[in-house]
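Quarterly update from the structural biology core.
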Amino acid sequence: MTTVTNRPDTRPRRPYFSSGPCAKRPGWSLQALEGAALGRSHRSAIGKTKLGQAIDLTRSVLQVPADYRIGIVPASDTGAVEMAMWSMLGPKTVEVVAWEAFGLEWVTDALKELKIAPRVHVGAYGVLPDLSAVDTQHNDVIFTWNGTAAGVRVPNGDWIADDREGITICDATSAAFAMPLDWAKLDVVTFSWQKVMGGEAAHGMIVLSPRAVARIESNVPAWPVPKVFRLAKDGKLIEGIFKGDTINTPSMLAVEDYLDTLKWAESLGGLSALHARADANARVIHDWVARTPWIGHLAADDGTYSNTGICLVITDPDVLALGDSVVAAVAKGIADTLDREGVAYDIGAYRDAPAGLRIWCGGTVERSDLEALTPWLDWAFAAEKAKLTRAA
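Predicted structure, tokenized:
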């Protein structure tokens, strides 16, 4: 059994490692929101200007192709994915790829709500399904680029056919702004402000390729489409959605916050700088795991390791020998202890995932805070293991 190590002296300056809502940008304060159009209609001149700026800056920072449309939609990333599914599916067989809780939600919706009998490719938590088995040439495909609850991402878009006949719907909420997205392979891309950019919840983004627009305008769904999911009217795309004319009322405070973070990203050097920050942050955790015997990655293949929500499992043989309930208790004990200490907030594994820890490493987190965190993780684990020794 391990002896409790000395309590670390250095603390993370910002103990915010939640996988959503995620950490605010470095230096953020409420003063960043002073220019918000509060008390004004989102349909006023200033409201429409701000919403248009959010769309334009998204295109610039995320490097979205000029012929793709970008819209602000209700209900966060979930609403954006649902909007695409309810508006666009039906003409072709649908392939759904899932390996953790959020991807499985799209399986449930396709099967039980839309009743379209998709071909389902499911991998266990930590294991990417066989992407070569997905018929991306002939069928529609729904997948997450990065599985937030498993710490597993697709390595690239090479598995998607260039000459595909269907459309690809990509849930990229924990990938956009942190990982390269292969736009040529993606027809619908969705994300939310509260993930990689550390914005506020309830607002989603949907990005449509010309092929996606053509599908929307040619498809008549076999099911009623709720107002908040409607992308077309009388067989034509509702263009206003992609110019800041939102379906429902957005929070102008949240809009201002998103604008602030986009401007911060531009000041760093844009998308490449955001990618570099996430990669450097993730490397801190990956290197620590490589030299630490009691912890390991939930992801089985290092080629699929996430650089945002990194999911970890306890690998210490003494703890594993005591059974799953003890493993879960130790993981919870670590997360609870570091929360009480004000060292790391919200680092427990997702509720449906295997017991463990989940540490956010996106670009709004500082590498120095992750470097300060790892000794505390060792200390907290040693303390939990010592409890087991005393109880034995």
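The chain has a mean pLDDT of 96.
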